[in-house]
Write a structure and sequence with these properties.
alpha/beta, 2 domains, 7-stranded mixed beta sheet, two-stranded antiparallel sheet, 11 strands, elongated, mitochondrion outer membrane, transmembrane helix, mitochondrion
């Protein structure tokens, strides 16, 4: 009898635990939905310029719950911009497939997926199905062998976020397909193409049309994820693809920069493999090209690296769509000795100009922040990098830190990086004179220094 009573007690306890867990889950879901509703109920209905009812999408209970973390991160109005956006992704391999997948999961309301290739093509040379794409593609399975990449993604995406309007085109980008692919005023275009001719033509078309575009460079033959960066095309280094694209854009279209790219600072760890024909002998790969200019030879790829490239692209685009200000890490080729030298020059300049260095309220670590994070290792007068690599290393030897406002001490939020001659000129002028004669420069510097003030204020809490 005692044992029977004990079993009954355990059974009741187990039942209570299960009911308690179920109740907790139910209350959590109810609370999440109520929070989402409270965020959304007072926001007016709106339609984006692409005709997607962004707010209606978020008002759906399942969608709002699926995007709860995004709404909590961005806020409802910013997520509304993401959900009302239209993004075109061209090239759906290891980079593009992951970028498109995360754009979808982030709630982008409309996607155009473009690729002329198949997920896993039937190799006409060896008469067998290649499965090599599976080490890096975002969603493809063995069952997708022979399926065009665009259609493969659309099929899988429909089960992840069916509310997204997805258009898939099995199409090669060129002059004849430009209007079909780039019309409709996309909010962003992602260039994930690995062919130089097509890549250059797409980037030039986006610049001509005034479209925001993000370019992926070489992800193959790399292994270090910590060296992946986002910067202007002019600043990319150690990447043969971006170097070739930069040269062609300047030569053929007069485009010097202004295009953000995702690239790796890491030197490639491997080269293109030799091309072997049906006989087993090395042959000329151009003899087997289905499309002129497209690579036939294979470059070794560690699957995780193109995936990270794609995730970086998606993160960059989503934050841009949400209008969240994110300061990417600058590409600055300086070492600790350079920062010590800048600190020394500042101290000597203060002593020479004011007779003392007691107003210098920054150390070497803070000089590093000012020079690298605020001014990206170049003069405050330069909007973007003119020198990269060794050229940039030489240019930093001509720089010094000076006070922006001479009436205030030399703090993190009152220092500008200038070339020697610019510093002399700056010391001879007043801020009112700069504001009147160079208002754009004055506003830009003031904005940067304000950001520094806010960032250091946050560190105090």
């Amino acid at each position: 009898m005692a044992e029977t009573g004990k079993l009954k007690s355990l059974a009741l306890l187990g039942t209570g635990t299960v009911l308690g867990s179920v109740s907790t889950v139910f209350l959590y879901k109810l609370l999440s939905r109520n929070i989402a509703r409270s965020h959304l109920k007072n926001v007016p209905n709106c339609m984006t310029h692409n005709g997607i009812p962004a707010l209606d999408l978020l008002k759906d209970e399942v969608v709002s719950e699926q995007l709860t973390r995004n709404i909590q991160f961005f806020g409802v109005e910013s997520q509304q911009k993401v959900s009302g956006s239209y993004v075109v992704v061209i090239g759906l391999g290891g980079v593009g497939s992951h970028a498109a997948a995360m754009l979808l999961r982030s709630g982008v309301g409309r996607l155009l997926l473009v690729d002329f290739d198949q997920v896993l093509i039937i190799c006409s040379l060896c008469e067998k199905v290649s499965v090599s794409s599976l080490n890096r593609h975002a969603v493809a399975t063995r069952a997708d062998v022979g399926t065009p990449k665009a259609l493969c993604l659309k099929k899988h995406f429909s089960s992840i976020f069916p509310e997204c309007h997805i258009d898939a085109k099995v199409l090669l980008y060129d002059a004849s397909s430009e209007e079909e692919i780039l019309s409709g005023h996309p909010d962003f275009v992602l260039d994930c193409i690995d062919n130089i001719d097509t890549k250059v033509a797409l980037l030039a078309a986006c610049v001509r049309r005034g479209l925001k575009v993000l370019c992926a460079t070489g992800a193959g033959a790399r292994a270090d994820p910590t060296r992946i960066r986002v910067a202007d095309l002019r600043e990319s280094t150690n990447d043969p693809l971006s170097r070739a694209v930069r040269h062609r854009l300047r030569k053929d279209y007069g485009i010097e920069g202004g295009i953000p790219v995702v690239f790796s600072l890491e030197k490639p760890k491997a080269k293109l493999l030799p091309f072997t024909g049906p006989s087993g002998e090395d042959e000329n790969p151009s003899d087997y090209q289905m499309v002129p200019g497209f690579r036939v030879r294979i470059i070794p790829v560690l699957g995780s690296i193109p995936a990270i490239f794609g995730m970086v692209m998606a993160s960059y685009v989503v934050t841009q769509l949400a209008e969240l200000q994110v300061q990417t890490e600058p590409i600055v080729n300086m070492d600790v000795d350079h920062y010590r030298l800048l600190h020394q020059r500042l101290t000597e300049h203060e002593e020479s100009l004011y007779g003392t260095a007691k107003e210098v309220q920054v150390d070497v670590e803070e000089v590093m922040y000012v020079a690298k994070e605020l001014w990206h290792g170049r003069s405050a007068w330069e909007h973007s990098a003119k020198d990269v690599g060794r050229g940039m290393w030489r240019s930093v030897n001509e720089l010094m830190l000076v006070r922006w406002d001479r009436e205030k001490p030399a703090t993190v939020s009152n220092l500008v990086l200038l070339k020697f001659k610019e510093a002399d000129e700056h010391e001879s002028r007043t801020l009112d004179d700069i504001k009147e004669k160079e208002p754009a420069f004055f506003e830009r510097v003031t904005s940067v220094l304000k950001r520094a003030e806010l960032e250091f204020l946050l560190q105090l809490f």
